[in-house]
Amino acid sequence: MAVPGARARGWAAAARAAQRRRREERTGGPARPEPASRRAALYVHWPYCEKRCSYCNFNKYIPRGVEEAAMRKCLVTEAQTLLRLSGVRRVESVFFGGGTPSLASPHTVAAVLEAVAQATYLPADSEVTLEANPTSAPGSRLAAFGAAGVNRLSIGLQSLDDAELRLLGRTHSAGDALRTLAAARRLFPGRVSVDLMLGLPAQHVGPWLGQLQELLRRCDDHVSLYQLSLERGTALFAQVQQGALPAPDPELAAEMYQAGREALREAGFRQYEVSNFARNGALSTHNWTYWQCGQYLGVGPGAHGRFVPQGAGSNTREARIQTLEPDNWMKEVMLFGHGTRKRTPMGRLEMLEEVLAMGLRTDVGITHQHWQRFGPQLTLWDVFGTSKEVKELLERGLLLLDHRGLRCSWEGLPVLDSLLLTLLPQLQEAWQQRTPSLVPGG
Q1: Residues in domain Radical SAM core (predicted)?
Q2: What's the mean pLDDT in 388-394?
Q3: Integer distance in angstroms from the first to the last C-alpha of the chain?
Q4: Statement: residue 203 has pLDDT above 70
């Protein structure tokens, strides 16, 4: 495929970076294990979309024109700055999200990956994911992203019903989605994820389950099921408020979710997280970092991050949010090297609350060893082992607390939010008392 010179140079740079990483690994270069404090995932936010979907309240913008060269330069600069501030030596995954990052040029993706590879160690087999919308990602463009260094795609399919897609304000049809999915599977076999929404106004279990079954005949090894959330300020919220559309039925949505997870289990998928299902080991390693409360750097307008700025001499983990509006963000990056708008130090209790809420989203839950990394003063037995409320959840079969750790059962995972209403206050109370037992198991 013939490509413009600038893009070709970008892809060539990415290819050289990948070759260098492979060569270092073969020769025993910087592939030595790094402690968790020196490892991180990297999230890159592309803030632009062709149009705003009716349900979306994410940080995204519909531009009249994008100065991509300026945006690319700022993404590279901020990635370099945050890697230096964090002291991270190894980036284990990169995720290009948005917005619609498949609207960016492959040259921009290649430039960011090259900057990361120059600033730190990026293994040749690191997961590099790109979110793609069907209308902005024909096969030739997907191939170009693959040449730039992307090795995994997440396709915002959302529905296989054209009427539902119009309701959601999507720019693609069901036919577009299936053609893009087929092209993606040819180019990235075993590394294509698709999103399917449930709980839409006037949606019913049978037809929706039919969509899922159709998708299972065509999909790869990763599926995400997301329930519609009506967000204030969106067009869909206004339509429901005005009575133009019926409000989504939460009981029907719960029934869809349960039917969906059972259908996926029958098809050989493991529900490894509340909304995410994989077979053949195709878990998202990038998202796993979030659920395990690993470090991640957020680059781009409105991106979020969690890391210890060791390069700046700190040993306290911070929650960071970058400036939302793209033009203001770019001005700050050009002035200061990054556009961090808010930095919030995270206390030890706050960290444990996050470990609890995020870890229980997964089928593994929270192992004793993992918990001790963040809360050595208190064991899981100390916090939950003597609670009458937790004991009731255990007896009802919604939770499991044993030699492996704390986790939700199959029946408990769908009602995690209600379980946390019991577990989080229990953690807060135990933290206030902080009288750890000397013997594991209480």
Answers
A1: 34-270
A2: 96
A3: 65
A4: yes
